[in-house]
Automatic annotation (TrEMBL):
<dbReference type="InterPro" id="IPR041522">
    <property type="entry name" value="CdaR_GGDEF"/>
</dbReference>
<dbReference type="InterPro" id="IPR029016">
    <property type="entry name" value="GAF-like_dom_sf"/>
</dbReference>
<dbReference type="InterPro" id="IPR051448">
    <property type="entry name" value="CdaR-like_regulators"/>
</dbReference>
<protein>
    <submittedName>
        <fullName>GAF domain-containing protein</fullName>
    </submittedName>
</protein>
<dbReference type="Pfam" id="PF01590">
    <property type="entry name" value="GAF"/>
</dbReference>
<feature type="domain" description="GAF">
    <location>
        <begin position="76"/>
        <end position="226"/>
    </location>
</feature>
<dbReference type="InterPro" id="IPR042070">
    <property type="entry name" value="PucR_C-HTH_sf"/>
</dbReference>
<dbReference type="InterPro" id="IPR025736">
    <property type="entry name" value="PucR_C-HTH_dom"/>
</dbReference>
<keyword id="KW-0175">Coiled coil</keyword>
<dbReference type="Pfam" id="PF17853">
    <property type="entry name" value="GGDEF_2"/>
</dbReference>
<feature type="coiled-coil region">
    <location>
        <begin position="222"/>
        <end position="249"/>
    </location>
</feature>
<comment type="similarity">
    <text>Belongs to the CdaR family.</text>
</comment>
<dbReference type="InterPro" id="IPR003018">
    <property type="entry name" value="GAF"/>
</dbReference>
<dbReference type="Pfam" id="PF13556">
    <property type="entry name" value="HTH_30"/>
</dbReference>
Length: 623
């Protein structure tokens, strides 16, 4: 007995106990003692087996604790399932382990696998009630087979059998994975040899499944929450983008509507719309002619034009003509239908399509307005021609005709004569539009455009017209202006003065410039009908005269002496009986009043003429 206990204490292998029995059988112990010895050895072996099982259980439980820690060290679902399948293989000495997860509408699919040799396993879907995992989940109990393909005790499917055959599997064990009464999936262990799983092995895999299921379910729920949050954020971003797009569209539509109401030209509207759309625009009539455009106006063949007009009218929306061409129909109501074409390399979303369609409607309104103005144009042209020729008849008839044309004869008007320094191009059409937009009149004389416009500043009116026409034609435009006129009876006189101003401007090399009588200096006295000497003197030396009146000085006399003595301060000082420094200080004051350029030849000439005119006026007024 002592030797048996010693073998137990040394954890001797079972063979040592068998060797002890053989040696005892060689001794003359007698039947009774031999039986007691055999019973003691069997008991010792049972104790040893129980101890071994307990040791393995403790080792397995320790491994499960490590597995749990390893699971919770990872956050993602794939990482956690990798830990589960890897530890399942190690705990049970398996060739392969994998996890299937439940699908919401029934069945399950293989999500992770460890030890597989083909790509057939992961992603494999299993119908409800088919396969060991489905049986284990339906019964909430483990299910295993020693030889899968040879076992007909459960339903087979061709897809699962093909994977089992490809992987060379025989023994398969499946245990359910549940959390809080909700089935999550199944954990599988498989061997490539026929194997009968022991209750301890089944229990161990079940413990691993129970340990990992809550973490896996929590991860899936968290992933679901993250997915929903991402979808919500994406939806919020989409709504924000749609709101921003709607605001941009509303702003652009408001701007286009305002430009239309302000009477802005077709070219202005097309330029703004092209900037808002991020591309080049062209307004083409039914014949394909460009009415307005930006950059290099987009082109389209006749068939595309017809198709674009028809499709856009049918759908009341912009349509695609080609990969980078979009179009919307333009109907003026007078001429045939046209097309607004946009070429852009950017994505042409719903916002841009709506803006292109709205722009086409705005263009149609502008063209219709222009058609109406053109229809009334000959009558208005005839009226201005009559004014310029002096054949207007009685003042009462003059006023009546003005009122019928929507004009106010009592308001101030200015006369502008425009001469393009190159091809006329669309100048006459532009003049009709410009006069209509500014509530004025236009005609053409001596190859010049004549405009009668409301206002009191002829130079400003001429400059505005020149700037717009120059941009349209692409070359210089010169202009003469006169006015303001009070009543239309003196329009012919204002026209004659504006022509003289224009001719004078051209004669002195001012092509591309603008001039009214007040802009020509002393030459304005020659071309002006009223010969406003006082205005000329004020424009040339007015600040000096004002300074003398306010300070009781004689800077004008100093200027006169300075010019009389050839621009010599010292000789001017002798004439004025003052020190040279005094003259120098006075000249500095004059520079402050007239500007640094007052001694330039052209300006000095006007100053000297103004000084002489001022002396003459004073002599005439002197009693």
């Amino acid at each position: 007995m002592g030797e048996i206990l010693d073998l137990l204490a040394r954890d001797a292998p079972p063979g040592d106990f068998e060797s002890l029995l053989r040696r005892a059988g060689e001794l003359p112990l007698g039947p009774d003692r031999t039986n007691r010895l055999r019973h003691a050895v069997r008991t010792a072996l049972d104790i040893r087996a129980t101890t071994e099982r307990q040791r393995r259980r403790e080792s397995a439980l320790a491994a499960l604790v490590d597995t749990g820690r390893d699971i919770f060290r990872h956050k993602g679902l794939d990482e956690r399932l990798d830990v589960v399948t890897r530890h399942a293989r190690r705990l049970l000495g398996l060739d392969m382990a994998y996890v299937s997860l439940r699908i919401a509408d029934g069945g399950s699919y293989v999500h992770n696998s460890d030890g597989d040799t083909t790509a057939l396993n992961v992603g494999l879907e299993m119908d409800r009630g088919r396969g060991l995992g489905e049986l284990a989940q339906d019964r909430s109990a483990p299910y295993w087979t020693a030889d899968y393909l040879a076992d007909g005790s459960f339903p087979h499917t061709e897809e699962i059998d093909r994977v089992v055959r490809s992987e060379g599997l025989h023994a398969v064990l499946a245990v359910p994975m549940s959390s809080g009464g909700r089935m999550v999936g199944a954990l599988y262990g498989a061997s490539r040899a026929v194997r009968h799983f022991t209750p301890d092995e089944v229990s161990l895999l079940r413990l691993l499944a129970d340990l990992s299921a809550p973490a896996i379910e929590a991860t899936r729920r968290m992933d679901g929450v993250r997915s929903e949050l991402a979808r919500a954020l994406a939806e919020s971003t989409r709504l924000d983008e749609e709101l921003a797009a709607a605001r941009r569209l509303a702003e652009a539509q408001t701007t286009l509507s305002g430009m239309c109401l302000e009477g802005r030209s077709l070219h202005d509207i097309v330029r703004y719309a092209a900037s808002a759309l991020g591309g080049d625009l062209a307004v083409r009539d039914a014949a394909g002619r460009v009415l307005a455009g930006t950059g290099e106006p987009p082109r389209a063949d006749a068939a595309s034009m017809v198709r674009g007009i028809a499709d856009s009218r049918a759908g009341a929306a912009a349509v695609r003509l080609a990969d980078d061409l979009w179009a919307a129909h333009v109907t003026t109501g007078v001429e045939g239908p046209g097309l607004l074409i946009c070429r852009t390399g950017e994505a042409f979303g719903d916002e841009r399509r709506r803006l292109l369609h709205f722009t086409a409607q705005t263009v149609a309104t502008v063209l219709l307005r222009h058609d109406l103005a053109t229809a009334a144009g000959p009558i208005r042209d005839d009226y201005l021609d009559d004014l310029l020729s002096g054949t207007t008849g009685a003042p009462r008839h003059l006023a009546e005709r003005a009122h019928r044309l929507g004009l106010d004869p009592a308001a101030d008007h200015v006369m502008v004569v425009l001469r393009p320094e190159g091809k006329q191009g669309e100048a006459a059409i532009w003049a009709s539009s410009y006069a209509y937009r500014h509530a004025g009149l236009k005609t053409v004389r001596r190859e010049c455009l004549v405009l009668l416009l409301p206002g009191s500043d002829p130079s400003a009116a001429a400059r505005s017209a020149v700037d717009e026409l120059t941009a349209l034609l692409g070359h210089a435009v010169s202009a003469g202006a006169a006015g303001p006129v009070h009543g239309f009876a003196s329009a012919d006189t204002a026209y004659a003065e504006a022509v003289r101003c224009l001719d004078t401007l051209i004669a002195i090399g001012g092509r591309g410039g603008v001039a009214a009588a007040g802009d020509l200096g002393f030459l304005g006295l020659l071309v002006s009908d009223d010969h406003d000497v006082e205005a000329f003197v004020a424009s040339a030396i007015g600040p000096v005269l004002d300074y003398d009146r306010q300070r009781s000085t004689d800077l004008a006399g100093t200027l006169d002496a300075y010019f009389s003595n050839g621009g010599s301060p010292s000789r001017a000082a002798l004439e004025l009986h003052v020190h040279t420094n005094t003259v120098a200080r006075r000249l500095e004051r004059i520079t402050d009043l007239l500007g640094a350029d007052w001694q330039r030849p052209a300006t000095a000439l006007e100053i000297q003429l103004a000084l002489r005119l001022q002396r003459a006026r004073e002599a005439v007024r002197r009693p």
